[in-house]
C-alpha cells in the first residue's frame, strides 16, 4: 500500500476544532487510530492522523497574526498533518515547506494542502540531519514530549535563530519544554481528543525562541 493510500484508508476530511478555516484528514474514531498505528508498523503513533493541541494553537496564532509569516519563507518542522504549514500558506507566506520524518506524514501533508487549496512543499525532515534551507520563519509544535527529541529539536531551533530565522513554537506544557529559552506570546485553551490527552481541553502557549546569551 502506498503512503497516500494508507493515509486515506482510515481517515476523512474533518474541520479542525480550534481552526475551523482548515480541514484535515482525521481518524474518525479512536479505535481507527490504533488500527492505523498497527498498519504503519512504526514506534511512534501516526501524528499526522489528528490535530494535536500545539499544532492547533500555532495554526490559530499564525492565522490571527498573519504578519508573522506574510511574504516570508516558512519551514514547518516536524509538521505531522501539515496543519501549521497550511495556516502559514493561508496567511500569505511567500513559500511554505513542511517536513516530517514519517513518509506517511509527508503524504498526508500533500493531500491536506491540496484539500485546503494552498501550495505547500512537502519533504522528509529530520531535526538531527537537516537544516532550515534559508527559511525566514521556522514553526514547530508539540516537539518537546520526549527527552532526546526535545534536545535535538532545541539544538536545531537554536541554530535557526542563529541563522537569522524567527522561530515560533507551541506546546501544552510537555515534560521537556525548554522554558528558559522561550518567550511566551499567547495562551489558548484548545479542545483535544480526550483519548489521547486524558482531558477535553489543554492550555497551549505559543512562544518565540530567544537567542542564546553569548
Short note summarizing the structure:
With 214 residues, the protein is α/β, with parallel strands linked by helices. The protein has helices spanning 3-9, 30-40, 53-64, 83-90, 103-115, 147-162, 194-197, and strands spanning 11-16, 19-27, 73-77, 95-100, 121-124, 137-141, 166-171, 182-191, 201-209.
Characterization of this structure:
This protein has one domain (3-209): Vaccinia Virus protein VP39 (Rossmann fold). 33% of the residues lie in helices and 28% in strands. The protein contains 7 helices and 9 strands, in the order H-E-E-H-H-E-H-E-H-E-E-H-E-E-H-E. Strand 6, helix 6 and strand 7 (166-171) form a beta-alpha-beta unit. 48% of the residues are buried.
Instruction: Give the CATH architecture.
Output: 3-Layer(aba) Sandwich
Bin the helical content: 25-40%
Biggest sheet layout = 7 strands, mixed
CATH class: Alpha Beta
Mean pLDDT: 91
Report Rg.
16 Å
- Tally of discrete structural domains: 1
Residue fraction in strands: 25-35%
Number of helices: 7
Amino acid at each position: 500500500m502506498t503512503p497516500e493510500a494508507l493515509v486515506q484508508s482510515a481517515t476523512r476530511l474533518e474541520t479542525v476544532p480550534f481552526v475551523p478555516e482548515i480541514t484535515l484528514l482525521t481518524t474518525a474514531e479512536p479505535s481507527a487510530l490504533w488500527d492505523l498505528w498497527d498498519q504503519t508498523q512504526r514506534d511512534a503513533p501516526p501524528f499526522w492522523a489528528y490535530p494535536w493541541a500545539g499544532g492547533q494553537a500555532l495554526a490559530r496564532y499564525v492565522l490571527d497574526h498573519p504578519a508573522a509569516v506574510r511574504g516570508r519563507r516558512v519551514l514547518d518542522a516536524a509538521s505531522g498533518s501539515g496543519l501549521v504549514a497550511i495556516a502559514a500558506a493561508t496567511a500569505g507566506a511567500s513559500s511554505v515547506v513542511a517536513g516530517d520524518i514519517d513518509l506517511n506524514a509527508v503524504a498526508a501533508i500533500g493531500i491536506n494542502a491540496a484539500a485546503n487549496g494552498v501550495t505547500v512543499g512537502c519533504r522528509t525532515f529530520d531535526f538531527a540531519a537537516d537544516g532550515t534551507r534559508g527559511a525566514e520563519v521556522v514553526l514547530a509544535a508539540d516537539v518537546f514530549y520526549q527527552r532526546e527529541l526535545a534536545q535535538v529539536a532545541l539544538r536545531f531551533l537554536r541554530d535557526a535563530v542563529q541563522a537569522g530565522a524567527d522561530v515560533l513554537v507551541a506546546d501544552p506544557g510537555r515534560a521537556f519544554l525548554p522554558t528558559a529559552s522561550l518567550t511566551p506570546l499567547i495562551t489558548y485553551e484548545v479542545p483535544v481528543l480526550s483519548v489521547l490527552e486524558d482531558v477535553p481541553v489543554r492550555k497551549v502557549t505559543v512562544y518565540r525562541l530567544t537567542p542564546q546569551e553569548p
